[in-house]
């Protein structure tokens, strides 16, 4: 599935706008607690383990977004954006990715 942060797809014509789609994934408090302990132990700098955790969470959110778009019959998503929210009550961090599901056609095929 094509995805872009822009409002159009270079080389494509948007045939139909199918609607807003969103995908979510969460990082559990235990994972964050483990990371906090790691930072205290190791100090500052880059932390590949945490970067991998964020990458996996982002991937899960994108897969959820793509599944929702496919249910609408989309072959592309435009205007993709990411957001993080901390749910302070239980320590959960939620990643949301959203965009507009569309049907797009390659200009070469028109």
Write the layout of secondary structure elements.
Layout: E1 2-3, E2 12-27, H1 29-42, H2 48-71, E3 76-87, E4 92-106
Parallel strand pairs: 1-3
Antiparallel strand pairs: 2-4, 3-4
Our count of domains comes out at 1
User: How does the overall form come out from the CA principal axes?
Assistant: elongated
Going by CATH, the architecture would be: 2-Layer Sandwich
CATH-defined topology: Translation Initiation Factor IF3
The CATH class: Alpha Beta
Q: Determine the N-to-C terminus distance.
A: 19 Å
Q: Which structural class should the secondary elements be placed in?
A: alpha+beta
Give the CATH H-level superfamily.
Answer: Hypothetical protein apc22750. Chain B
Total DSSP helices: 2
The H-and-E topology, N to C, reads as EEHHEE
Q: Largest beta sheet, briefly?
A: 4 strands, mixed
pLDDT < 50 runs, ≥5 residues: none
Per DSSP E runs of 2 or more residues, the count of β-strands stands at 4
Strand residue percentage: 35-45%
**Cα-atom radius of gyration:** 18 Å
Chain-averaged pLDDT: 86
> Residue share in helices?
25-40%
Biggest sheet strand line-up:
1-3-4-2
């Amino acid at each position: 599935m094509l995805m872009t942060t822009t409002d159009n797809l270079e080389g494509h014509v948007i045939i139909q706008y199918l609607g807003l789609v969103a995908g979510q994934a969460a990082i559990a408090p235990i994972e964050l607690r483990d990371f906090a302990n790691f930072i205290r132990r190791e100090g500052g700098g880059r932390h590949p383990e945490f970067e991998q955790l964020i990458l996996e969470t982002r991937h899960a959110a994108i897969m959820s977004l793509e599944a929702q778009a496919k249910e609408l019959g989309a072959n592309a998503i435009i205007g993709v954006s990411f957001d993080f929210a901390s749910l302070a009550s239980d320590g959960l961090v939620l990643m949301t990715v959203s965009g507009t599901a569309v049907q797009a056609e390659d200009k070469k095929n028109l």
